What does this fold into?
Amino acid sequence: MRSTLPITGTVELLERLSDFIPDEFINRKLAFRRYSGQQRSFAPAQLWRTHLLALLTPAHSFNAVVRLLPEQRGWRRFAHLPQRQYTPDVRMLHEFRLRAGVAGLRVINDYLVKRLLKSIPAHSRTVAIIDATDLPAAAADKKKTGVNGRRNGPRSERELARPATLNFLSVIKSIRCVFGCARISPRLF
It folds into this structure.
């Protein structure tokens, strides 16, 4: 099956997807109140589009996106950032995620999924949408540690009162997991 979308990471893909993003809806749902003394801020749709660049380009981290954004005209055009000198920094992206919260980002996701499902022909038999919201984050081992392998800083009372538990990786709940071994009948030699 041949895809009609351009290759991931290309400016052509960003141009094709740009019209699909509901900027007015995002700005309306995630409208934030400006605080006094706050410098010029970006619209929620601009920050959301900047977040998408981490998924749609070879720069797979927000630090890399922020570092490369001034050099990439196509990326800035996709994120509606007209000035090369003024682009969001990592702190702005972090604050946007905190202000929007999981609920705000899910509202946008639900809106996009509904639009996507409306565009699928009625005679289509199969639709597959990847949703990773139920997967646990694999970042526990990426925390900053000290020389002896422990996290820096004092341990909280809550951590000290909690009994030690083994860390393990859970399996996706929707996939049936069977393990064990087959019964082996004894053979006489």
